[in-house]
């Protein structure tokens, strides 16, 4: 297989902490990962090799371990995770991967899932993005990994750090980047939350809006939402209900994950993942 690419080593290092939360690890644990850049550096390397040496210098096997689905496979192989193995693409895919993990658990396909996002930005493409108006006031685009251990949990367990209540995807007429303080009162946002948790419309709920190019903040791309969950929502000392919305580069699509942060232990590294309705 050769030396592991940097992105795989990044995810393996982060995943070791999550896997350590549930030892011995059951065989029916899966992996669900999202990435925005995917294997853009692999494509760039291939193009540079073709330009320099011609097509004879490019062999598919030389780039196989750099592909994003290979990262998920490598992580599963190293940790012995034999459950579902998913790879999703796009800016929202870090949150989408967590939602996909919850779906697998609900369907009985896995007892737990290692889920989240990672990105190792191409310097060339990151520089291109930061020259666009969307990133005019934003911080740098940085590499990152955000992983959570999503497992089935008893909703009545008050020692759990957080419980997923529901999720939904939909379209917003107004981009999150322009809503600002009005996010919670936007009718599309309220409808999205109501689909995630029937009967809820966001009243009394803390709403977190994530999107590319947030002013003054570094952007970890597909790792942004999982890292935000870990560092902001799950680390919050107070209980409460949170809705995390992520909108990618296409302004109408939006994903919503609603979780209940409870007063038990702070789940710094884990997001218990059964659904409560």
Automatic annotation (TrEMBL):
InterPro entries assigned to the protein according to its UniProt record, in alphabetical order: Ketoacyl_synth_N, Thiolase-like
GO molecular function terms listed in the Swiss-Prot or TrEMBL record: acyltransferase activity
Protein name in the entry: Beta-ketoacyl synthase-like N-terminal domain-containing protein
Chain ranges of the Beta-ketoacyl synthase-like N-terminal domain: 27-125
Source organism per UniProt: plant metagenome
């Amino acid at each position: 297989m050769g030396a592991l690419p940097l992105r795989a080593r990044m995810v393996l290092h982060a995943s070791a902490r999550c896997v350590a939360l549930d030892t011995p690890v059951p065989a029916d644990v899966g992996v669900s990962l999202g990435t925005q850049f995917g294997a853009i550096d692999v494509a760039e390397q291939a193009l540079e090799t073709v330009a320099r040496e011609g097509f004879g210098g490019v062999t598919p096997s030389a780039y196989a371990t750099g592909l994003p689905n290979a990262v998920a496979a490598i992580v599963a192989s190293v940790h012995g995770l034999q459950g579902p193995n998913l790879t999703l693409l796009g800016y929202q895919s870090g949150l989408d991967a967590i939602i996909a993990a919850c779906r697998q658990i609900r369907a009985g396909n896995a007892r737990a899932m290692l889920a989240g996002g990672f990105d190792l930005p191409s310097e060339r493409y990151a520089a291109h993005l930061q020259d666009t108006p969307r990133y005019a006031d934003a911080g740098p685009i940085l590499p990152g990994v955000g992983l959570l251990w999503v497992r089935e949990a008893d909703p009545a367990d008050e020692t759990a750090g957080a419980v997923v209540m529901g999720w939904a995807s939909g379209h917003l007429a107004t981009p999150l980047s322009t809503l600002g303080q009005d996010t919670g009162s936007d009718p599309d946002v309220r409808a999205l939350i109501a689909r995630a948790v029937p009967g809820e419309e966001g009243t009394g709920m803390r709403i977190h809006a994530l999107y590319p190019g947030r002013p003054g903040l570094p952007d970890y791309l597909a790792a942004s939402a999982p890292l935000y969950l870990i560092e902001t929502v799950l680390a919050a000392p107070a209980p409460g209900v949170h809705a995390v919305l992520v909108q990618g580069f296409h302004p109408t699509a939006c994903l919503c994950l609603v979780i209940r942060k409870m007063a038990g232990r702070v789940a710094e590294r884990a997001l218990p993942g059964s659904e409560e309705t």
